[in-house]
Amino acid sequence: MDPSKTLAEQLGYPADAKLLIIHADDLGVGHSKNAASISAWEQNGINSASIMVPTPWFPEIAHYASKNPEFDLGLHLTLTSEWMYYKWDGVLPSNEISTLLTDKNYFYPTVDEVVANADPAEIENEIRAQVERAYQFGLNPTHLDSHMGTLFSHPDLFEAYLRVGQEYKLPVLVPDNWIEEAMFSDIEARNEIIELAEEYPLHVQEVVMLDSTTHESDWFEKYDSEIKNLKPGLNEILLHPAYDDAEMNAMTINYHHNFGAEWRQRDFNYFTSQRVKDLLEEENIKLVTWREIKELMYPD
């Protein structure tokens, strides 16, 4: 990448262009999730996504990806298993990642439990194994990011994340607003993460994700507002499209306002609508992909 030029200029746009990746998280977690995300991509509702390699429906989305290599797919590096009854563990054997697992041999449900219990060396081994598993299934990932932000939660984990991205020549999501706004009890750890982030050559300045603070009746209007208020530079909207069906309701039985089936269906409905396509054009938003960024960062 050329530090004398903005990312927009390097991608062929005006220096002050508003760049946006419309990105679907959690592919591989379930069939409903895969089907809705594929449909959203085929309708040009999303232009990027990332896959959870350890989850049960990973083979389905890996097969689709092998048939559709133009789909901009990265890896949603996964170290938690948050649902009440629907669980998974790691790619590596349990005896090699014992500090990452509960007494029932599943990943911990929360980020705090991972940070409190996991050996950073085992975490690095596991995320590297997830990348290797993706290649084993024929994927050619375009980037890395972190499920539930686990890898942004401690300096040792963040450093491992950056190191694995560099090793495999994959850009990684470094979300400026999330890192700056994160609530850390350890100020020294927070400052260390910020310092590590500052050294990375690519930043997503604003990552947008709706949560329970937005009422369901205001969902479309809130997304409209977020798009209208995007600033020049690289931005990403993280959505979680899935269908409000029996499978997704069973999987997310303990989640309603955040990340539940209705929540995911609303994301699908908005981003597959003509409304958002018209708004992006009106606001002169330039859609870009992680693949384009990867080609700039690692031209070989």
From TrEMBL:
Record's superkingdom? Bacteria
A Pfam family recorded for this sequence = YdjC
Question: Which cofactors does the annotated protein need, by name?
Answer: Mg(2+)
SUPFAM superfamilies reported in the protein's UniProt record: Glycoside hydrolase/deacetylase
UniProt keywords, alphabetically? Carbohydrate metabolism, Hydrolase, Magnesium, Metal-binding
PANTHER family of this UniProt entry?
A: CARBOHYDRATE DEACETYLASE (PTHR31609:SF1), YDJC DEACETYLASE FAMILY MEMBER (PTHR31609)
User: What protein name does the entry list?
Assistant: Polysaccharide deacetylase family protein
Identify the species of origin.
Rhodohalobacter sulfatireducens
